Amino acid sequence: MRVNFDDVTVRLGGRDVVQRASLAVEPGTVVGLVGPNGSGKSSLLRTLYRAVRPTHGTVRLDGQDVQQLTGRRAARAVAVMLQDPPTDFDLSVEETVLLGRVPHHAAFGRDTSTDLDVVADAMRRTGTTELADRMVATLSGGQRQRVMLARALAQESPVLVLDEPSNHLDISHQHELMTTVRSLGRTVLAALHDLNLAVRYCDQVVVLDGGRLVAAGPPARVLTPELIRTTFDVDVRVHGDTDAPVFAFSRLTTAADAAVPTHEPLPESSVPG
Ligand SMILES: Nc1ncnc2c1ncn2[C@@H]1O[C@H](COP(=O)(O)OP(=O)(O)OP(=O)(O)O)[C@@H](O)[C@H]1O
């Protein structure tokens, strides 16, 4: 399913937190949204799953304005895995993943064998099968995040939105998540803080800064040291190949840093004569 943001502005708290963003996402591609805290990544994504209505502009799924869809059609089209999954779920892991099937049910419909198969597959892909009977509230942050991915996968929507999906995951599970996401063949939009994950697993990256979309394209072409420096205020060294760079970051050295002496000079009187 193709996703288009056409000239989207989102105004919240009296400020344009997304300003005139336009972006075309091809079906089946994985797109990473990167940018500093507060740059508008989540706000832009929220317009896609209708948690926020654009103040200006249109978001389209295969040409259709998402605001015109029924709730059920929207839920069948777009699944969401949020940054901080809720902790107050009074449900088991399996029951939670089954919630992903709700948009496929008729009113008061019962779980079918297809639902159970899809849920079992989603739990297998996310390594949550062993947790099936655990209550979600008792899980660690990373386990809970994997359950929320399983629920989103079980929704079988052509579009998947991941808002900082790896913030609780250990390194191995971060790579597993991105490999899983890539293997789905769905259209994926993911807000990511880890530029190394973005460059390795995304087909395209989109850079937001201060609510503006400042660059978009193939990751290795877009994420230049210069862009990283100006957007994120860090120094970066690039290792690896031009096509598959690996970034090492360090704090940007400013003129103010250089002016601060690292050691107090010894007073004259204490210098041995
Ligand atoms: N409901 C709201 N009311 C007022 N301002 C909001 C609201 N939601 C978000 N904002 C502001 O909009 C700006 C963009 O926030 P957003 O969450 O989209 O950024 P982000 O790039 O996802 O940030 P992060 O990397 O920290 O998750 C921020 O300045 C935020 O404080």
From TrEMBL:
Signal peptide: none
Keyword Ligase in record: no
Keyword Nucleotide-binding: yes
Entry's Gene Ontology molecular function annotations: ATP binding
InterPro entries: AAA+_ATPase, ABC_transporter-like_ATP-bd, ABC_transporter-like_CS, P-loop_NTPase
Coiled-coil region(s): none
Every ABC transporter domain range: 3-235
UniProt keyword annotations, A-Z: ATP-binding, Nucleotide-binding
PANTHER family recorded: ABC TRANSPORTER ATP-BINDING PROTEIN, HEMIN IMPORT ATP-BINDING PROTEIN HMUV
Entry protein name: ABC transporter ATP-binding protein
Naturally occurring in which organism (per UniProt): Promicromonospora aerolata
